[in-house]
Specification:
alpha/beta; Rossmann fold; globular; binds NADP nicotinamide-adenine-dinucleotide phosphate
């Protein structure tokens, strides 16, 4: 199966490449990278894995990309947030090239399409365009990364692997949220893109459903250390969301402000509203990975914490 990945050099992209290469299905992978990063270390690593890396410009896809995407079975986009709107041109190119299935960049927690998260809305705008041009697609959401879910330990022994430690519990810490090891995302993708049942559908593939209280309990048990628990109230979090929404509404384009808005909206969605669950996903029309692939093996959250405690975890984006 011929697959083109845009964003393969990134965090989710690397997981997807590994998942496709580990699969029993034979995938022939081409990675499209921006000219400026064509010789990056990440791309060198992809080449060592047997991936063909070519330069392409998402902002000018007409010439290069249509040729590249022709006779391609699946196109997967795992681009960084800043490049999400560029997928409109990319999907037009995929349509012209007759691509069998387009996987737009989602790979996040479940949430309703509008009114909850700005970043989600940008992804949904792309999906609406895909539907407008009748491009075959599959949306894949994966829940919240394990790598963004653990708190620090007082000893500091897992600091080396934590990207953004969860310092405070949201609300009373009792809202369940679906979590996935970033490494497993690609393994789900390999199953989903080769599955006719998932064509023109949304799929929610996650590893475990846990509350923050359960995460803190697990880390205390496995580490033998006692964790301080402090809580952010719903009202406090809502006020932070409102503050940053207003800054953006008033025209702020400061990337730091926009990222803070996304971060607070994410937390409000999965930590207070409880959007990121299989129940919400079913309501919103997703197929569930757990039902499609009951045999799927995955890293448990305990397994991830053991990796962290044993000094074997890798900090994302490092
Ligand atoms: N579920 C979660 O908890 C979670 C966590 C993080 C991210 N995500 C989601 O995962 C998806 C992919 O995010 P990611 O963090 O994996 O991506 P990333 O590592 O930040 O970036 C992926 C690639 O995008 C390419 N790119 C294209 N245009 C770019 C630009 N203007 N600036 C920088 N890079 C650009 C780069 O490839 P080249 O340099 O090779 O061109 C880069 O390696 C997003 O939808 C994001 O929302 C989910």
């Amino acid at each position: 199966m011929k697959v083109v990945i845009i964003g393969a050099s990134g965090e989710t992209g690397r997981s997807i490449v590994n998942g496709l290469l580990e699969s029993a299905i034979e995938f022939e992978i081409t990675a499209v990278s921006r000219e400026l990063s064509i010789n990056s270390k990440s791309n060198d690593e992809l080449r060592k894995l047997g991936v063909q890396v070519v330069a392409g410009d998402l902002k000018d896809p007409e010439n290069d990309l249509i040729r590249l995407l022709t006779r391609c079975d699946v196109v997967i986009s795992s681009v960084t947030a800043a490049a999400l709107p560029d997928q409109i041109l990319l999907s037009d190119a995929a349509k012209k090239a007759g691509v069998g299935r387009f996987i737009p960049c989602f790979f996040g927690p479940v949430a309703p399409p509008k009114g909850v998260m700005k970043l989600r809305e940008t992804k949904e705008d792309v999906l609406n365009h895909i539907k407008k041009i009748y491009l075959p697609y599959t949306v894949i959401d994966a829940g919240w990364w394990y790598q963004l879910s653990a708190p620090r330990l007082p000893s500091g022994r897992i600091d080396y692997g934590l990207l953004a430690p969860m310092e405070r519990l949201l609300g009373d810490g009792s809202v369940p949220s679906a979590l996935t090891h970033v490494r497993d995302i690609g393994r789900y993708v390999a199953r989903i893109v080769a599955d006719p049942r998932t064509l023109n559908k949304m799929v929610f593939a996650y590893n475990e459903l846990l509350t923050q209280e359960q995460i803190f309990d697990k880390l205390e048990k496995l580490s033998g250390e006692k964790l301080e628990r402090s809580y952010v109230s719903e009202a406090e979090l809502k006020a932070e969301v409102a503050k940053f929404e207003e800054l953006v509404r008033n025209g702020s384009t400061d990337p730091m402000i926009i990222q803070r808005l996304w971060a607070y909206q994410y937390r409000y969605s999965w930590g207070i509203r409880g959007d990121n669950t299989p129940e919400s996903a079913k309501y919103l029309g997703y197929l569930l990975g757990k039902e499609l692939y009951p045999d799927m093996d995955f890293t448990t959250f305990d397994g991830y914490l053991k990796e962290l405690l044993d000094g074997k975890a890798r900090k994302p984006y490092a």
